[in-house]
Amino acid sequence: MSQEVYEAALDLLRRLDAKNISKHLTNICKLNPDLAEDLLSSVDVPLTTKQCAESGKQYLACDYNRDGDSYRSPWSNKYYPALEDEEDAPFPSKTLREAEIFANSSFDVYRDLYFEGGISSVYLWDIDEDGNDVSKDGKIGFAGVVLIKKEVDAGKSGSWDSIHVFEVQPNESGPYATYRITSTIILDLSAGKSEDQLLELSGNLTRQTEKDLKYQDLSSHISNVGSMVEDIESKQRNMLQEVYFGKTKDVIGDLRTTKGISSLKEESEKQSELIQGMRNL
């Protein structure tokens, strides 16, 4: 696969309707199967919901908790549908799994306070090149993803999907760690009682953040990531409000007016006379 073809596919996806990004991505992968692996790992799509058979809780599915056609539940640490050879499937180490349980519990509280509903899931995995498992003192790095989804359907329909992929790398020189987070917000809103009154607003926003923060142990890494995610989502919400809602309001304001045609024509004539008078000065 050439780099030009890959970049062209990404450029095409940016120009197509964001509301149907999953459909467009599937069609491109069918046209050129060689692009599938790279596109599926680099293009964010709206999150899907799964049910954990053991706990009965819902969880979010993405490429980071997938093995084949099965997805790992953060509540039971099991794959659904069950895998034939689960021993070869990716699982977090024992200590990292304990941190994953703590992270899911913490972000579940965050989701309830900020979103008043929805679903959240956190997945962690080991990244140490020497194959060392994460320890409780937090001196070995790891990576993970925080997923949040909120859907609305009360005379309106829409969804909010936030995907925060992060990496934690403790510094050898002292009690500080480098936190790198790539955050993507996928927004989809629609309102209108009939098809001719339907207003749709869809898009996504991606930002990268890097910080060096002090840590004490493994749990403090989760706390630092949580604080960063909270700050990032607040900033991205404000940006979405300015870019999407502010611009849409301006466009609608220019298209629709409460003044009559005669009043607008009169104002236009006065403006033309004023401009002509200034030219004659």
General shape:
elongated
Q: CATH-wise, what's the superfamily of the largest domain?
A: F-actin capping protein, beta subunit
Amino-to-carboxy terminus distance: 65 Å
State the strand order across the main sheet: 6-7-8-9-10
Q: Count the DSSP helices.
A: 6
Q: Structural class per helix/strand content?
A: alpha+beta
Outline the structure in words.
22% of the residues are buried. The N and C termini lie far apart (65 Å). The protein folds into two domains: 1-43; 88-255, Alpha-Beta Complex (Aspartate Aminotransferase, domain 1). The protein has helices spanning 3-15, 21-31, 36-42, 94-115, 218-255, 261-279, and strands at 48-51, 58-61, 66-67, 70-72, 79-80, 119-126, 142-153, 156-170, 176-191, 199-214. 39% of the residues lie in helices and 29% in strands. By secondary structure, it is of the alpha+beta class. The protein has a five-stranded antiparallel sheet. The protein has a three-stranded antiparallel sheet with strand order 3-4-5, with no helix packed on it. It holds the Pfam family F_actin_cap_B.
